[in-house]
Amino acid sequence: MSKVCVCPHYFVVDDAGELCLRPGSMGLRQMLVYDNVGTFQFKKADYPWLARIRVQVQGAGGGSAGADAAAGQCIVRPGATGGGWSMSVIEVSALGAVETIVVGAPGTGGVGNQTGGEGGNSSFGGFLLAPGGAGGTAVMGTGTSMEATSGVVGPTGGTGQMTSGGGNSGGAIRMSGTQALAGAGGDSQLGLGGTPRASEGGGTAPRGRGGGAGGALSFGHPVNGADGGAGLVIVELYG
């Protein structure tokens, strides 16, 4: 008579005598992507097979400053910085019944000669925090003489088993009333900063998530800064 054997590493017989997959042996079963700005809730009871989760949180990028030079003159801006990033693997036993998720809002671009706004933090409960990026500065005044403005230092790493700070932004250089170079936005772990620009125009938009906006450049006309990249939270569910 033949018989069937099962591997105890993957299977277990429950109290009802049913053969079941052993919790924690199934690998990645589902991925939740929180890509809208706001606050959400994660309830572990919604996933009775859950053994552990891997979470990534990306802070939002900063917005760049606007520029409004006098006629025949120039103002050029540095970029904004990228947001920080964090990642952790968390056992289901360590999770609360409900964990709050926050997806950071992008920093807003400055209007006229205003500085750019800071990006919002992203987080998962009390386990992970990724800081938002700093906004671009509006230090340079209108003029035609050579002048340089430093880029902005990105935020340090937040909270988590693995963390990374946001990328620094590029500085701005004015050569004359008609020649200048705006600064690039800082990169993030999950996005790229806005590109530098040498022609008149507003700040440049980042790509992906959490990148800082590139700087604006004015040759006598008002231009606005650009918004940074929004934050992101990814929750991978392992059974």
Spell out the blueprint of helices and strands.
Layout: E1 11-13, E2 19-21, E3 28-34, E4 38-43, E5 52-58, E6 75-76, E7 85-91, E8 98-103, E9 122-124, E10 128-130, E11 147-149, E12 162-164, E13 172-174, E14 180-181, E15 191-192, E16 207-208, E17 217-218, E18 232-238
Antiparallel strand pairs: 1-2, 3-18, 4-8, 5-7, 5-18, 6-17, 7-12, 8-9, 9-10, 11-13, 13-14, 15-16
Strand order of the largest sheet: 3-18-5-7-12
Query: Which class do the helix and strand fractions yield?
Result: mainly beta
> What does the main sheet amount to?
5 strands, antiparallel
Number of strands: 18
Helix share bin: under 10%
Report the β-strand fraction as a percent range. Answer: 25-35%
Count the domains: 1
Radius of gyration: 24 Å
What is the general shape?
Answer: rod-shaped
Keywords for this structure?
single chain, 239 residues, 4-stranded antiparallel β-sheet
Structure description:
- The chain is an all-beta fold and 239 residues long.
- The protein has one domain.
- Helices cover 0% and strands 30% of the residues.
- It is built from no helices and 18 strands.
- The chain has strands at residues 11-13, 19-21, 28-34, 38-43, 52-58, 75-76, 85-91, 98-103, 122-124, 128-130, 147-149, 162-164, 172-174, 180-181, 191-192, 207-208, 217-218, 232-238.
- A five-stranded antiparallel beta sheet has the order 3-18-5-7-12, with no helix packed on it. Strands 4-8-9-10 form a four-stranded antiparallel beta sheet, with no helix packed on it.
- The model has no long low-confidence stretch (mean pLDDT 94).
